[in-house]
Amino acid sequence: MVVRALFIVTLLAWCPLAAAADVVQTKTATNSQPDPAAVLKPRIEIALLLDTSSSMSGLINQARTKLWKIVNEFESAERNGQRADVYVALYEYGHSRLSGESGYIRKIVPLTLDIDRISEELFALSTNGGSEHCGQVIDHAVRELAWSTKPSDLRCIFIAGNEPFTQGPVPYKDACSAAANSNITVSTIHCGSYDQGVAGMWADGAKLADGRYMNIDHNQTEPHIPAPQDKELAELNTKLNATYCAYGVAAEREEAVARQVAQDTNAAAATPAAAADRAVTKASRLYRNASWDLVDAVREQKVNLGEMDKQHLPESLRGLSVDELEAHVDKLAEDRAEIQDRIKLLAAERSKYVAAERAKLAETGSNALDNAIVETVRNQAAQQSFEFAGE
């Protein structure tokens, strides 16, 4: 259906150790400056642990197509007037191609702001039979990820699968208790009936780690509802890409730009809703690419244009003076803001149109992955004094 990654979501931590998690990295060649505001921002960290054994293709497809919708739900999250940074991490477990020594577990992406990378990896996932060690993968996530150490930040794990929660060498009770002791909640999503999940101890795991137990129909698909705004949203998305200016080593520049375009293609090939949701994400503050985009890097004070190595610029910009380069970046930022405003307006119109069409179909999609995650994270965020605009 499309290429990689999973849905969301681990929104990461506050501390300076964030550099060890996959936070926006600055390139030494740019003489970047630290962002003092970064350590003050509240953080929402979400780690998604997905079962990739044989019967889980529906779960992976939901993660791929709903990633952008999930991210968009947290665009307005704030505490004490400061908008929260949202970090997402991704694990897979239960795939037979993974080694038994690893517990059939793979950390795919550490806590990161780079949602394109999460999407890329979700579309690259495949499924095949294996052993599903829920306690062990939770234990890995708790120990391996660079979680925030700030008590007021939100740290949560979501684990989804369909086999008994009791399998594997690490007892789920030990793993969930360790998560709770680290102020990390574990919410469990059983792909199957509610009662079967309870019998398989999925509910007990969530209870031990102050999380929530849920069940979903992982094979559920939502109807494709084309909207009048879809064509212009696609055109604006293409124009938006033209406002990005890749910097760094040539190979890294090319890789970053290719990843952005590939995830556009993946979303467009999935569903109209996925493409529209991705465009909305790209128009929001949560789509941050300071590690490779000069506009974001300057805005976040990650680079000093006057001290850049010209070889880390596109060839067409290397002959510009510092003043000319600053003017170029300012113009790209201005164009981007204008396009993003138009995307937000169209997206709001599209949302109303689709809601009306869904009402005619009596389709709510309540028993799906995105709804389970969004509702739970919002409830947990409220307990940590996060607020959402418009609520």
Question: How would you describe this protein?
Answer:
Helices cover 42% and strands 13% of the residues. It contains 12 helices and 9 strands. It is of the alpha/beta class.
Write the SSE topology.
Blueprint: E1 43-51, H1 57-72, E2 77-79, E3 82-83, E4 85-93, E5 105-112, H2 115-124, H3 134-144, E6 154-161, H4 172-181, E7 185-191, H5 194-199, H6 202-208, E8 213-216, H7 230-241, H8 250-270, H9 272-282, H10 294-299, H11 322-361, H12 369-383, E9 387-388
Parallel strand pairs: 1-4, 1-6, 6-7, 7-8
Antiparallel strand pairs: 2-3, 2-9, 4-5
Using brief descriptors, characterize the structure shown.
single chain, alpha/beta, Rossmann fold, six-stranded mixed sheet, 9 strands, globular
